[in-house]
Amino acid sequence: MNTLTPMILNAKAISMNLDDTENDIVTVSCMCCAATFEGFSESQANDCASEYDPETRELTGYYGSTLIDLETHFVSPKIDMPHAIGNVCDPCIAKMMKNDGLILISAF
Ligand SMILES: [Zn+2]
Questions:
Q1: Domain of residue 64, residue span
Q2: d(CA 34, ligand 1 centre) in Å
Q3: Ligand 1 centroid from CA 36, angstroms
Q4: Is 6 helix (H, G, I), strand (E, B) or coil?
Q5: Fewer CB near the terminus (10 Å): N or C of the chain?
Q6: CA count, 13 A, side-chain hemisphere, 56
Q7: How far is the CA of 95 from the centre of ligand 1 (A)?
Q8: For residue 34, is it within any domain?
Q9: pLDDT tens-digit profile of 17-33?
């Protein structure tokens, strides 16, 4: 190991970075608080598996969300949401619930 030249070490570090972003680890981030979660799919992670649609203000939870799994909620206009489609994490959903910001529309 101590025979590696600095240049080789550098190349190794770069290839390790590529591995992190392209292979095993998928990161799902909350668009409200920017927290990141290690995902089991591109848009689902434990505690961050809900998608928000700005057109309808609907928030739908999927497997991974501990709070609204398989439920669709309307997000009250009093909750300030980004105008974008994206994931929302459970801690942010808990905050919305606490502020009476979610209205259950349907449960699958
Ligand atoms: Zn969040």
A1: 6-107
A2: 6
A3: 8
A4: helix
A5: N
A6: 11
A7: 9
A8: yes
A9: 454 455 678 999 999 99
Q: How far apart are CA 103 and CA 97, in angstroms?
A: 9
Residue 1 placed within a domain:
no
> What would the pLDDT profile of 82-94 be if each residue is shown by its tens digit?
999 999 999 999 9
Model-level pTM?
0.77
The Å distance, Cα 59 to ligand 1 centre, comes to: 13
Tokens encoding 66: 């501990």
Distance 80 CA to ligand 1 centre (A): 13
Residue 72, in any domain of the structure: yes
Please give the distance, rounded to the nearest whole angstrom, from the Cα atom of residue 47 to the centre of ligand 1.
9
When computed from its CA atoms, the radius of gyration of the chain, rounded to whole angstroms, is 19
Rounded distance from Cα 7 to ligand 1 centre (Å): 40
Residues linked to residue 56 through DSSP beta bridges, in sequence order: none
Tokens for 102, please give them: 């979610």
Tell me how many domains the chain contains.
Answer: 1
Provide the β-strand partners of residue 26.
39
